[in-house]
Amino acid sequence: MGSDVATSMIRARRWVVAAPPILALLLLLGIEFAGWDRALFAIFNDLSSFTGPVFWAHATILGDGLVCTVLLLLWTRRNPGRVWGGLLGAVFMVLVLRVFKGMLTLPRPLGVLPEDMVTIIGPGHRRGSFPSGHTATAALLAGVWAMTSTRRIVPGVALGYVVLVAVSRMAVGVHWPTDVLAGLALGWASAWLGLRWASRAPWGMRKPGRHILTAALMISALALMVPYDSGYPGVLLFQRLLASGCLAWGAYAVARPVDAHDGV
């Protein structure tokens, strides 16, 4: 495919593509050099004392890998390019996450700080801190949306979603600020790479690839509805409602297919 086709799916302005990861990396470097990681973590980790733990448990599962996969069903009817680009970007993102977490195995807050100084909501992990996988996954989903939309409101809403998930990872006690900033940069860059890759290899946007992906996502929604346990308290009903809605939309997409251009 030619270069014109390769860039056609990315419709947003250049700052939408470049600014979030660059700003995240600059903040990461600033926090690291200033030595503010622990101090900032303490501030964000204390947020549940104002809101209660349930809010942050619900917010953090919005970055869960299976949840974000199921959310792709919302685009299967009119924006299959987003689905395919998101899945391709996820391949790169997961590889990078595995390399960093496997090679560095940096301690999470609970592996460094006394237990009575960390508020833990849900699973209390101690290793594999950098970067934040939940934040990276949310940034991948948000980046695919923001980069393929021409609506001015979308980048702000998409970034708001990522920030919510990023803050939640500190509020539940499993990541440092530098972890979530690295996750944001990785996920956003992975979205750009996935969209470029999808334009050059459009299998998932055409029959039968598109139908195969939709079926796989619907199976993921069923898994999210029944046996999946995220480990966070009080989220099961929300999780099942989310999966049910996406599954219903996926079924509608199969029944009423639309041949639309990607990124509309």
Summarize the structure.
The protein is an all-alpha fold and 264 residues long.
Integer-rounded radius of gyration: 18 Å
Taken as a percent bin, the fraction of beta residues is: under 5%
Overall shape: globular
Total E-strand runs: 0
CATH topology of the domain at 11-65 and 78-199, by name, is Vanadium-containing Chloroperoxidase, domain 1
- What is the CATH domain class of the domain at 11-65 and 78-199? Mainly Alpha
Secondary-structure element pattern, one letter each? HHHHHHHHHHHHH
- In CATH, the architecture of the domain at 11-65 and 78-199 is Up-down Bundle
Distance between the termini: 20 Å
| Content-based structural category | mainly alpha
Low-confidence stretches: 1-7, 260-264
Continuous helix count: 13
Estimate percent helicity.
Answer: 55-70%
Average pLDDT number: 91
In CATH terms, the superfamily of the domain at 11-65 and 78-199 is Phosphatidic acid phosphatase type 2/haloperoxidase
Major sheet attributes: none
